[in-house]
Model the fold of this input.
Amino acid sequence: MAVIVELVSYPIKGCAGTPLPRARIGWAGLDHDRSFMVVDEHGTFRSQRRDPRLALVRPEVAADGRRLVLRAPGMDAVEIAVDTTSAPRGVSLFRTAYEGVDQGPEAAAWLSEFLGAPSSLVRVPPGHARVTSGLTPGTSGYADSGAVHLISRPSLDVLNRRLAEAGRPAVPMERFRPNIVVDGWEEPHAEDEVRRARVGTAELGFAKLALRCVVTTVDQRTGARAGPEPLRTLASYRRVPEGQVAFGAKFAVVRPGRAALGDEVLVDVWSEGTAGLADAVR
Done:
């Protein structure tokens, strides 16, 4: 029996996650997931690709979404009232134009000081209507692609076994920043083949494989790059035809609901045959 063993929301894109015992899964994923984003002075998103210290920023969003607290080592915590009503400004995510509601000078000053570069914080505006692509289209906040990122424990076990065989240290699941971690499938990378699944009372539809980048080489506890692993080892057996590396899968939400640790993951539709890595670019 496959069950949920981790649920994690990442309120601010690129920043630390919040482990949850239970969560509501809306059209855009887990509550508050990637609903905020740090941008530079030009409105371009900041990511751990360029700013690994983002991993040390620990946001805490009130259940009603009206208050946000920012914490980081060596910094006094700052609490702000979340603004959803001001006129949105233009922001850029992977060279695509979106909008965001600026969260004000206090959050901007705090982030600029911690990151050592001009920064501000924006929130997804109420009218955000982003469409995500893939086998199952959907929507999301500021996530890279797909509302829900799911990985199975057996997939990580295989990676860590290969790392051990090469004399390299294991990597924790947090390097991949998933929303849902599943255990109980016998085969690794079973998530590649799931097409429709029920998690708690929500239903997910497969969108695409998760293509990995240098963020996986950032130690999420120190905010420093610790590369070249796990990318080097993943590249030896998880390359897609276009040359990128895949690990985990992205899903769209086809029916909102709620999920909790220990809930069974029921797969209603598996892929026909073994589509595997070929689905990554859909």
User: Anything to note?
Assistant: Confidence is low (pLDDT under 50) at residues 278-282. Residues 129 and 139 are 7 Å apart (CA to CA).
